[in-house]
Amino acid sequence: MTMKMILATSVASFCMAGAALAEPQAEVLHWWTSGGEARAVAVLQEEFASRGGSWTDMPVAGGGGDAAMTALRARVLAGNAPTAVQLKGPAIQEWYEEGVLADISAVAQEQGWADILPASIAGHMQCEGTWCAAPVNVHRVDWVWANKAILDEHGIAMPTTWDEFNAAAEKLQAAGITPLAHGGQAWQDATVFETVVLGVGGPEFFRSALIDLDMDALQSDTMKAVFDQMRTMRGYVDANFSGRDWNLATAMVMNGEAAFQIMGDWAKGEFLAAGKVPGEDFLCASTPGDGYLYNVDSFAMFDVEGEDAVAGQNLLAELIVGQNFQKVFNLNKGSIPVRSDVALDEFDSCAVLSANDMAATSEAGSLLPSYAHGMALRGAQAGAITDVVTAHFNSDMSSEDAVAMLADAVANSM
Ligand code: BGC
Predict the structure, then answer these.
(1) Rounded to the nearest whole angstrom, what is the distance from the C-alpha of residue 188 to the centroid of ligand 1?
(2) Which of 119, 186, 188, 387 would suit a FRET pair with 66, their CA atoms being 20 to 30 Å apart?
(3) Ligand 1 centre from 64 Cα, in Å?
(4) DSSP collapsed to 3 states, 152-213
(5) Could you confirm whether domain 140-294+354-413 is CATH 3.40.50.2000?
(6) What is the 63 CA–ligand 1 centroid distance (Å)?
(7) CA-CA distances (angstroms) from residue 376 to 67, 179, 210, 371?
(8) Whose Cα sits closest to atom 7 in ligand 1?
(9) Which of 139, 121, 163 is nearest to 357 (CA)?
């Protein structure tokens, strides 16, 4: 027997002895590159390494993940998909339909995901009865963040209606303060827009307009009122807003350069990473109105060759849903655990508010998927809406023209 044959025989018998001997490997594509995000993803890297995994990082900067999704498509087209990809909402099922996702049902069954995940979230992780993604967290999108010192100095309380928001913004503007920190990128415009749809129209209107894509809702006077409010808010951003990254907008609130930001609670991850304390340095409140817009980050595994890669995928899936990861990751990320059996004692008041509101809105039927963060619609429809929102925000388009354009864009995207 040559050395090569001996090695081949022993490798074969190792394999037969089980995948436990494989060395877990994963190339992980994600867009967690800001300060808070990087701290959070490091938790997964550390857990993976402590279980013998070797992690190849593929970060693609760009909030909201648009650039990451472009990079993903290029890799898959080149026949070289990453092992694990930050992917969420209907995009998971879209990729599944292309036949490129791995089945992680064995891990899901072993860990009893069906019992530990809320049904609404489990649904996003399944593809025709198999488990095709592992959920990381629940981010809430409909938040207002504020610089506490600025509000105190001007005798302003956190707004509970859009009128109060506008009144506060005007008072601040008159005092020379930028009311709203915003980054003019399409996904950030969409983020603000969907909170206004929820607040101005209410949860049922949000459902008709942005989930069911009901033409009457899209062209309604309520939708005109939404665009009116967007136009008003365009007046509250500073002159340099175009193209600004979301975390730089968060930094403006942190540093006292602006009073408010409307952004999901990954913004809280930035405040925390900078050592800021909720209730002391910054304030959080849900945007005016009822309801809760959820955004669940998850990882899908792509169908790749090799025992080490499969072992890496299974290990990642197992760690992601594990209790310790769910706690430590989410403490850093600003989100809350996806499992309800993770204690929240170490979480801050914003996280506790999020968890309580999530439970209450789930009961009330107003727990809704975020359209702006890819939870509600397929890519083509979401993209069509966002194009109109951005075109309106960056021009002097009237609200009448915006609703007409919105209805057309949605109809053409179907
Ligand atoms: C993701 C978050 C991320 C944020 C900013 C959202 O779509 O769900 O995890 O922090 O985009 O990049």
Answers:
(1) 11
(2) 119
(3) 5
(4) HHCCCCCCCCHHHHHHHHHHHHHCCCEEECCCECHHHHHHHHHHHHHHHHCHHHHHHHHHCC
(5) no
(6) 6
(7) 20, 30, 8, 5
(8) 64
(9) 139
Q: Which residue CA neighbors atom 10 of ligand 1 most closely?
A: 266
Contacts of 59 (CB under 8 A, 6+ apart): 30, 31, 32, 33
Kindly state the tokens that stand for 49: 């390494």
Q: Is residue 19 predicted with pLDDT exceeding 60? A: no
Distance CA 337, CA 335 (A): 7
Q: CB under 6 Å to ligand 1: residues?
A: 31, 37, 63-65, 139, 246, 266, 295, 297, 373
Instruction: Give the distance (Å) from ligand 1 centre to CA of residue 65.
Output: 7
CA of 139 to the centre of ligand 1 (A): 8
> Which tokens is 143 given?
């938040």
The answer to whether residue 5 scores a pLDDT higher than 70 is: no
- What the block records as the tokens of 78 is 């080149």
Q: What is the pLDDT of residues 225-270, one digit of tens each?
A: 999 999 999 999 999 999 999 999 999 999 999 999 999 999 999 9
Enumerate residues 6+ apart whose C-beta is below 8 A from 157.
151, 164
- By alpha-carbon position, which residue is closest to atom 5 of ligand 1? 63
Fold that domain 24-139+295-349 belongs to in CATH? D-Maltodextrin-Binding Protein; domain 2 (3.40.190)
pLDDT at 18: 46
Quote the pTM value.
Answer: 0.94
pLDDT in tens, 292-310: 999 999 999 999 999 999 9
As a whole number of angstroms, the distance between CA 400 and CA 384 comes to 17
